[in-house]
Specification:
Helices cover 33% and strands 32% of the residues. The chain is built from three helices and five strands; from the N terminus they run H-E-E-E-H-E-E-H. The longest helix is centred in the first third of the chain and has 21 residues. Strands 1, 2, 3, 4 and 5 form a five-stranded mixed β-sheet that branches. The chain is globular. It has 132 residues and is α+β, with helices and mostly antiparallel strands. It starts with a helix and ends with a helix.
Length: 132
């Protein structure tokens, strides 16, 4: 099982390098690691990044700097040793890569469009879907 896990991570990293050749803003320096069962339950992937140098543009604040620390992909279904199929893994990987190349944004509305007094982190805004 460990050998299969490692070969899958190598394959996913190879996909990243192929994308990087056409999209240089996708860094190849951060690791792609397994998302284990007790981490971020319910998520198939997660991008660990920090954001800085925020600039306000009306109702939106955008980070000019995004530092990706890692991309985590859930490889196995639940607590089993059954791995997700490659199309599911690649779809999740591409989703996480879209987070890597999309500037983080804060909005005065939440994900459902409800107006807020405080800034809300919106992970899936129009810029994200354009990049995805």
């Amino acid at each position: 099982m460990e050998e299969h896990l490692q070969s899958t991570l190598v394959l996913l990293d190879g996909i990243r390098h192929q994308i990087h050749a056409c999209l240089p803003s996708l860094s190849t320096s951060f690791p792609i690691v397994p998302l284990v069962d007790d981490q971020h339950e319910g998520y198939l992937g997660m991008t660990d990044a920090s954001h800085s140098d925020w600039v306000q543009d009306g109702e939106i604040m955008k980070a000019r700097s995004n530092q990706v620390h890692s991309v985590m992909i859930r490889l196995y279904q639940g607590k089993s040793d059954v791995m997700f199929r490659m199309p599911e893994l690649v779809g999740t990987l591409l989703h996480e890569f879209a987070h890597c190349v999309t500037p983080a944004t804060l909005h005065k509305t939440d994900d459902r469009g409800k107006r807020r007094r405080k800034w809300c982190f919106v992970a899936h805004d129009d810029d994200f879907y354009t990049n995805f």
